[in-house]
Amino acid sequence: MTSATALPEPITTGYQIDATGLEKSYITPGGVTVRALDGVDLHIDAAEVIALVGPSGSGKSTLLHLLGGMDEPDAGSIVCDGRDVTALPRAELVAFRRTVGFVFQHFALLPALTARDNVMLPVLPYKTTYDAKDRARSLLDDVGLAGREDALPSQISGGQRQRVAIARALMNDPRLLVADEPTGNLDSTTGAEILDLLFGIRETRGVTVVLATHDETVAARCDRIVPIADGRLVR
User: Fold this and answer.
1) Most Cβ neighbours (<10 Å): which of 49, 112, 123, 129?
2) Percentages helix, strand, coil for the chain, rounded to the nearest 5?
3) What is the pLDDT of residue 2?
4) Strand order through the sheet with 17-27
């Protein structure tokens, strides 16, 4: 039997993803309709690291949100390992989101919570078969923050805050990791360290990684670059 403090074993493979005909539009406060995605087709292999590159407003973040189940397309489908995520009932969609880890450019840490408590946030509403505090501490060790469990976000550097955010994204042992400009607020040296960390996660956990970036150096290190402009993939 699994003990109460046992940590889940890392998965061995990430999602294979097939997105077909994705469309998404938004209405601005001024009443103007903006088409963020216009018929996007994208195949991603399991455990692949791909970079979405393009100017601001090109649709990168929108595509990340759709792939991670944070938003729904107006049309099209997203199939992960043969399961159409866009057709899932709400309860099953919530369960799918728990298999996705999110990393944001501005870290999105709660300032009043310690590093450990920020990492624990994804599992706080749920019962777990393991000790959440032990898992959070272990993940902080994995990202190079041993001994900083009780530090507040204001007490650590930008690079360290991003490491906390990555540890939080791993709390549910995700099969897909989506990262929106994960090095955008960091200097080049710290950004390279964060990218090393993301690639290490892919190697050790087999997770699929999709990141959006403006940085050509970051994109060049990925398995594949997917340019996007005006809501369409550039072939």
Assistant:
1) 49
2) 35, 25, 40
3) 36
4) 33-44, 17-27, 75-80, 83-84
Which 8-state DSSP code applies to residue 9? P
Instruction: Kindly tell me if the per-residue pLDDT of 10 is higher than 80.
Output: no
- The total of other beta-carbon atoms located within 10 Å of residue 125's CB is 6
Q: Determine the Cα–Cα distance for residues 102 and 100; give it in Å rounded to an integer.
A: 7
Tokens of 104: 């944001």
Amino acid letter for position 221 = R
How far apart, in whole angstroms, are the C-alpha atoms of residue 49 and residue 221? 9
Q: Could you count the other beta carbons within 10 Å of the beta carbon of residue 77?
A: 14
Name which of 189, 194, 18, 182 is nearest 104 in CA terms. 182
DSSP, residue by residue, 88-128: --HHHHHHHHTTEEEEETT----TTS-HHHHHHGGGTTS--
> Would you put residue 43 in left (φ > 0), alpha (ψ -120 to 50) or beta?
beta
pLDDT 10s digits, 32-85? 999 999 999 999 999 999 999 999 889 999 999 999 999 999 999 999 999 999
Q: pTM higher than 0.85 for the full model?
A: yes
CA dist 4 and 7 (Å) reads: 9
Strand order across the beta sheet in which 100-104 lies: 100-104, 176-180, 208-213, 49-53, 224-229, 232-233
- CB 202, CB 234: distance < 8 Å: no
Centroid of chain to Cα 108: 12
Q: What domains does the chain contain, in order, with CATH numbers?
A: 17-233 (3.40.50.300)
